[in-house]
Amino acid sequence: MRTWSIYHPIGISLIALACVVLGAVTLPRLGLDLLPHIIYPEVRVRVLDSGVPAVIMEEQITRQLEEQLAITEGLVHIQSRTSQGRSAVDLSFPYGWDIDKALADASIRLDRAKRFLPDTISPPVIYKRDPSQLPVAELVLSSNLRGAVALRDWADNQFARWLLNLPGVAAVETGGGLRREIQVIPDLSRLQALGLSIADVLDSLQSENLEAPLGRLHTPGQVISVRLSGRALALQDLAKIPLQTGDNPVHLGDVAQLNDGHEEEQLRIRLNGEAGVKLSIQKQPRANTVAVADALHQRLDWLKHQQIIPEDIQIAVVGDQSVYVRQSLQNTAWAVLGGALLAMLVVYLFLGDVRRTLIIGSSIPIALMLTFALMGLGDLHLNIMTLGGLAVGVGLLVDSAIVMLENIARHQQQNTAKAAEIATQEISSAIFASTSTNLAAILPFLFISGLIGLLFRDLILTLVAAMLAAMVVALTLVPALSAKVSAANKAGKAIQAGRLFSALTGLHQWLLHQVLRWPYLMILVFLLGLVWAVSVLQNKPQRFLPNMDEGRVQISVRAEPGIPLARMDAAVTKLENLLLADPQVISLYAQVGGFVFGRSQYQATHRSSLKLQLQAGKSGRWHSQHWIGKTRKAIKALQLVGIQVYLRSRGIRGIRLSQGDDDISLRLQGPQLDTLKQLAQQHVKHLKALPQLRNLSHSQEDTRQELVLKVDRLAAAALGFSLEQIRDGVDVLLRGKQVGYLMQNDQQINIRVRLLKKDLNTPQALSEILLYNKSGQAVYLDELAHLEWQTAMAQIQRDQQQRIVEISGSLAAGSSLEQAFAAIENHMMQHPLPAGYSYYDGGEIKNLQTGRKLGMLLLGLAIFLVFVVMAVQYESLRNPLVILLGIPFALIGVAGGLFMLDVPLSMPVWLGLILLAGLVVNNSIVLVETIEQQRCQATVIEAILTAARLRLRPVLMTTLTTVAGMIPLALGWGAGTALLQPLAITVVFGLSFSLLVSLLLIPALYALFHQYTLNVAKK
Predict the structure, then answer these.
(1) Any transmembrane segments, and where (predicted)?
(2) What is the DSSP string of 235-272?
(3) Residue 490: what pLDDT?
């Protein structure tokens, strides 16, 4: 094929054109997403029952769910969190498990569990923990004219419908504001005087406000459906519902106040201090993120142009994943362009020929388009991983092409007949070998399961596609084009850089003479450097993934459970005023009294959160940790009594390394919850003294005061009451009860029977309420039971169906996760737990330890496979062993780079080391193969010196272009680069130092091996 391309330039040109066309056609069809298609092997079941205490939720809901869901096929772990009105059960399965099958099986178990759940719950929700279900965009609506009810009503019933029919949109979830609600407020004294009860009100509303099918009427001509129409359409219809008939009829309007009001406010949303309603737009799993976002913005513009959006309503986009994707795409495009220009500049400086420079310039876009075509065949999307893979692969796209071009140019300068053909045959095997070793180093990564495999699979496949495309272009197109460069250009243009290169060649030859005279000394120097590198890497702090600072900060606000919403709102308002006065804060989004995120909505007056975006500095980077440290002091000065405020930098949404949001998660398990709570209190007190930790707390700190109704069973039975009757009667009075709905303008408006808060706002008022038995007899509650104050848990955590207490916290500035966990383990050894009690990590440390072991395994496997490929290529063990021994010394450059730039070890660093295992041998392979060719006509030392002189230029050119292509990523320019920046730093420094390994150490090792072999042969 390589010879065919030289003699068929038209054919190879058309094939190249076809590759460009295929790439151009494929590129727009590649999906654009923030993350790869990661589906965590987890399923969540969520059940809501407003106002129910955590203990009751656990007993009546969580335990029932766990009992049924625990037998789901393939389940390896089950845990739950229960709080007031909310139960969430998480099911974990092995990585690689068919999660759709698991979801279907869990759904069947959930259906069975529903029979044992209370009737008052909202419909249970079950879903996969799929990052694609994260909102693709989030909008906040605000108005200076409409109230919270009118704004929420417009958002639900008009605005959301315009967005729901957009292509690729799966759901539009609304939160905040106030939902409209018809409130029926009975007059208790009036009911008592008429001998009626609230139960009569409920029964009448349920039986007199309905619509139902009545079957079909068969007439001679047709079959007609018949239905009962008794649904109320207005408040007047509800007021006419009869409660009592006869001589003295009583209607609902006679004994109750009917209001067109709103549900009880428990959650407030504000954008930059203004109240609003939030809409979360979720895309379909395989929909294009950018296409959905573009369609959304076009629809918003159209709605404004058509004046469908009223002038008083402002719409702000507080979250848009497509912005991040576009920035990553733009950064990659600039990296490709910058790498291509630098590569062309290197070629021009070393070869001094414009036409040969243009050959490299044309090979880059062709190889890139071929890469896109291969990505399309592999069903890959453009995301931060594949785009990062392209940024890393920019240098690789020209590596092989430069080796081929330089070799052909050298033969043409010697005026050799058929120079292109000879040069192509001479270097092709080396190019094929180097590409094979690169692939051998990274392909094992594809067989790894778990989070690491899910996260980096797309990046590896992109690199594979880029390497294959680069090899194909180097072996076909470059020889065909190079052969057409006329012999008149054989000498090139002697630019000033030529003199510098001549001087550099002379210096290298002199150094190589010294190395070959004292090879053991050179090896000793490199060994000392390797020892230093290993010690540096061993002492480096480690993280599973690097810190990804994009200027996004999350602030969590906590208070004592039971705090009134107004008091929590006042504290959050003070924080908002402080933050909005900071010029670095671009936007501030606050959720008071809970949170709304996609399909999840959690209401708790003691919890609030603020999310803000910081302005980037002059360098284009953010310094979130510095800002957080400064802001902590300012918040402390506010003296918010009873309010705890926690600040943390937010990473990329969708990448979860632990179950919670905290860096540290230490779980205590044992038979007695009271003992666990005491142990947690003791250990939190001691752990606060550790300098590596801050913001420590435990899950049982949140408690709340509650009134417990202690029923006198004998008295209740004597008066004709069961516990169930007492429960239902008090529940309606305190929480209210939804009884049907009213239809207006094709909208369902819930009807709720409840009392005014002012009529029932003290324990004394509660004890004096009237309940009615089945005989209609009215009895005061205090005749049936007495009230008792108790302290209850605000949240209950369970793991493997057992209660646990979790100690959580965050890392102090400058501390690593491994250092913190080592300090925690040392503390736990000094303060052992009682018999029957244990602790274990529930956070990121497990992923870190697994990632480190896996990284070491993959690195060892990569080196082994590189050796196997080279041994097969050379049908020899000696030369592959010489090349292999040079790989570890690249660690010297890696350690130097990580040390100078203060970069911790992480999975991207390990991936960079694995990639290096294949890259650093490329130059050595070309050098050793040239030595072998020269040995046919020279001694070992002469062959080494001649080969070093011949291969110096391509070694420098390929290394410089590969490094140059990765410099933008290594410098961390632009959004999305923080995740892969350590990988680029590892490759840049490791590959740069490998120049010394290839040019000095490998010749020394080759000389020693072959001189030893010759001496043995002579003996």
Answers:
(1) 332-351, 358-378, 384-409, 430-453, 459-481, 518-537, 854-874, 881-901, 907-928, 955-976, 982-1009
(2) HHHHHT-EEE-SSS-EEHHHHEEEEEEEPPP--EEEET
(3) 44
